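Instructor's aside before we start: the two examples that follow are unrelated to each other. I chose them only because their records fit on one page, so don't look for a connection. First example below.
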Amino acid sequence: MNISGTSLPAVSGSGQGRELYSAALSKKQQLADGAAALALIEGAAQSSSAQTPAKSVTASLGNNVNIYV
């Protein structure tokens, strides 16, 4: 039995036909989810390599503490 996303083979039993249709829809959804996940990973990898490192910023407040005993 060959299941493809574009065309479904004819099945005589209505229960089998529904199962086959459900399996084909599930496969299409899994492929779409996988493609979206790969695109997200690739986008994250590109944006992190394109960013410049942040300059270290030190605040002047609180650097010197005067303690009197």
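Example two begins here.
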Amino acid sequence: MHSPDNSSRAARQNRVKSKWKTVIGDKVEVWLDGEPYRNGHVEDIMPDGSGLWLASEGPLHREYVDAASGFEVRKATPPGI
């Protein structure tokens, strides 16, 4: 089994870190395996970009979303756009 070298792993982490830092405080859609998983507001992000925290909303508890688990985070589009 081939494992990624350190340079490709670092590049991937940098992409995740910069991508997820831009969504702090924003409303986002979280997807897993091409399917919608959850919507929410980003409350915080791990300093190393390994994941982020979604704020609790209504019946949904605060939740950690781990980048290594394959989650994709997209900025939510406002209704009517």
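The chain is about 20% helix and 35% strand.
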